[in-house]
Every structure is written in structure tokens, then in C-alpha cells.
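Can anyone check this?
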Amino acid sequence: MSESGGSDDDSQPSDTMRERADKSSWKLWLLMEANRWVVAGVLLVGVFVALVVIGVLDPSPLQASVASSDPNETLFQAFVTAIITGVTLVVTLNQLVLSQELGPVGDQRGRMEDAMQFREDVEEVLDAPVSPPEPASFLSELIQETCSRANDLADTVEDARDEELKNIIDDYVDGLTENANEVSDELADAEFGSYDLLSAVLDFNYSWKIFVARRIHNAHDDVLTEETRDAFDDLEEVLNFFGPAREHFKTLYFQWELVNLSRAMLYTAVPALVVVSSMILYYDATAVPGSTLAISNDVLVTSLATAIAIVPFMLLLSYILRIATVAKRTLSIGPFVLRNVDRSDELDFDGE
């Protein structure tokens, strides 16, 4: 296909986030797609197994170390401080989220007016009396309108004499509509609060589509009809609305996730603190004789207690991994591509 914007162009980045990522599939799944509790659980199992293996391989038995220096007490005293500090961090996170919602009535009214104005602008673009209230439906309507206007663009060059221009636009429209339909299908069952919605809209590579549309428009402006120019403008208009809409819902999702993180850490901090305190006050490794599966029981108990103690931290790690990864991959809004793109040197920006 032409270098200017279809799906077979080696210079064009892939549409889906998974294909654009320079990471392996399992790593991307771990960072973004997997349930955060599952990720935390996998990390905790890894810590538990690692501690057990180290305890088995340690030439100095744990009971002998306890008798001489009591490392358990030192370790779990540090955990008490860490858990209390983690709860303080939760309070800070909640303050960060709530600060977006608190303010005088003037600020709240301004937020309301901005939100309503944006919806009215979108309704004008969609030529609809009211835009959908649900985020998934709202974004789906924008995507479908993009698809509709792209088809209108293709129709304007249906009878064009310039076959090269016709092929360029047809390839661009085919790639856009295919991607739009795939994302719309993903959004059909997505609900706000789940990562499914954000994952779907991240698969709509709107910034590159804006760039390619503007490039084709400017490079062939001298041979475009007025109808085709207007069709390009209409397509770019609706694509320009998708960026702010996606960023708005992404921000709301981050706030939602931070609230979930805060609640999860508070729920797990209390039992973790109980276990840690019990290990300091009541546990005596020398009073836990015997072994299970050829592993000393004192090693198993200490390893399990350590894993429970770090549950809040692992939850914090799993949630922040997703938030930070999404934030890094969506830093730019509009036709700016921050990641490396294997773009052909033949691509020029002067329309020559």
C-alpha cells in the first residue's frame, strides 16, 4: 500500500497497544491487563517461595540464629513501621484524589459548565440531540462517527481520475474503519471502573490517524476537490474530540484506581499489622519443632508471616505498575508520537 497511511505500511505503528508495545506479551499482560490482586498474589507467592528456598539452603538453621540474635524481632519491628507508614501513604493518596473534588461552588460550577459545553460540542459533531451518558457508549459514538466520516471521505474520491490519490485514501479509510470497528466491539461490554474500557480506547491509535489525515490533505491539496477538503476537515474534527474525551476518562479511571488502592491497602493493613505484632510478642522459633515436606516449620512460619506483612506493599506495587505504565504510554495528546516509530525516510512533511 501507499506510504501515506494504510494498514500495510511498514512505517505506520500498529493500532493496538499490545502490538505497539516494545515489551513481550506476558510482560504487558502483567503490567496492564492482569487483575491487580492476582499480580499481588503472584508476587507474594514468589517472595514466600524465595524465602523458603533461602531458609532451606541457609547453612545456619533459623532456630540457631534466633537463639543468638533474634532476627525475627528485628525484621517484624521494621514491618510495623512500614505498615503504619503505608497507611499514612493511603491517607495522602485519598487527599490527592479528594482534592480534585473539593472546592468552592464557583469552581464546581465552572467544572459543570466545561463538562456541559464539551458534551454540547460533541453532540453538534454527532448531530445528536443528546450524547450518551455512559463513558463506553460516549466513546463508541465518537469512534463510529469517525468511521462514518472516513467513509464519506472515501466516497468523495470514488470517481477521481487520480488513481494514486484514490488508492491512498482508500487504504487509509480501510485501516481506520477496521480499527474503529474492532474498538467498538471491545467497548460494547466494557464498564467504567474496569480496565477493559481503558484498554479498548488505547487500541484506537487516533494520534497517528490525525497525522496521516493531515499529511495526505496537505500533500495532495492542489488536486483535492472542495468536497474532499471538507471531508478531511470533518474527519479531523471528530478525531480531535476523541483525544480530550479519552484523557478525561483516563483521569477519572486513575482516580477510581487510587480509591480502590487506598481501600485495598486499608483492608490488608490491619491483618498484616496483627500478624507482625504477634510475631514480635508471641512467636518463638525454638518452640516450633518438626518439619513439613522436609522443610523446617520455623522457616515456613516465618516466611508466611513475612509474606502477609508485605501484602499492602505488593498491592501498592501492582496498582502503581498499571497506572505508571498507562501514564507513560499516553503522555501526549494529539498528533504527537513519543515512542520510536520505524518510519521510512521517504516520509516528508512538506508535501513534496
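Reply from J.R.: I decoded it. Residues 17-102+133-329 form one domain.
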